[in-house]
Design a protein that fits this description.
Length: 258
């Protein structure tokens, strides 16, 4: 038996709060970018983001203590797929890192992530990062009332697989609002016309994870960090989306993307 869906349709007032939260989440990624340098630790990045969120933005870092997660951001390096815990590990030349930010402002969540490349990444890594970002936007292009969740997944999958990348299937996008994770789940593979119909007022994340190697992943003993089983690199990008009456609005758009 599958459980009934509990999809929240946001009121205009709620959407305005989501806009604020989304903008603040995007600003954290813009703030941290200059600090992502060879030799810095992911713990230092976490502390910088935490202090900026709490002291400057006056927001709550959503990951901190969420189901026991110990830090304020997720940092997933190289073959780490998602949910990487910041540590004393230093970043080195050629590393790729996903920084995943979720803030809570006035009770509403804004959730976004971006890939960064250190020094001179390999051609293979750079291509993975670029194709993953394009796959995210291919998915976003499908979002409008009357479309289906499967349309998003199909567009992401088609773009990724046409360039030879595999898609992680165990983790997906999700509805978002007052709760960090709401219905529906947004999987990054599928068939056009499948799944829940998209309606105006829905807010959800799209956050594809692409692997250079096989799609298979495992969770490390820390119970959080997800890695590729073949240890090949993985990339992820994420935006929070609001469904408008004729398309969608990206609530976490950064200045560089406008």
């Amino acid at each position: 038996m599958s459980r009934p869906m509990n999809i929240t349709i946001k009121t205009p007032e709620e959407v305005e709060k989501m806009r604020v939260a989304g903008k603040l989440a995007a600003e954290v990624l813009e703030f941290i970018e200059p600090h992502i340098q060879i030799g810095i630790t992911t713990n230092q990045l976490d502390k910088l983001c935490h202090d900026f969120m709490v002291n400057e933005q006056k927001v709550i870092p959503a990951p901190l203590n969420y189901k026991g997660f110990p830090k304020s951001i997720c940092t997933s390096v190289n073959h780490q797929v998602c949910h990487g815990i910041p540590s004393e590990k230093t970043l080195k030349n050629g590393d790729i890192i996903n920084i995943d930010i979720t803030v809570i402002k006035n009770g509403y969540h804004g959730d976004t992530s971006k890939m960064f490349m250190l020094g001179t990444p390999s051609i293979q890594s750079k291509r993975l990062v670029d194709i993953c970002q394009k796959a995210l936007f291919e998915g976003i292009k499908q979002v409008k009332p009357g479309a289906h969740i499967g349309d998003i997944g199909h567009a992401v999958q088609k773009h990724a697989e046409s360039h030879g990348y595999s898609i992680v299937k165990e983790y997906c996008g999700h509805g978002i609002g007052k709760k960090f994770h709401e219905d529906p789940q947004i999987v990054h593979y599928g068939k056009p016309g499948d799944g829940v119909e998209i309606k105006q007022g829905m807010t959800f994340t799209i956050e594809p994870m692409l692997n250079i190697g096989k799609r298979h992943v495992k969770v490390l003993p820390d119970k959080w960090t997800v890695v590729t089983k073949d240890r090949k690199h993985s990339a992820q990008w994420e935006h929070t989306i609001y469904v408008t009456d004729d398309g969608c609005e990206i609530l976490t758009l950064r200045a560089e993307e406008k």
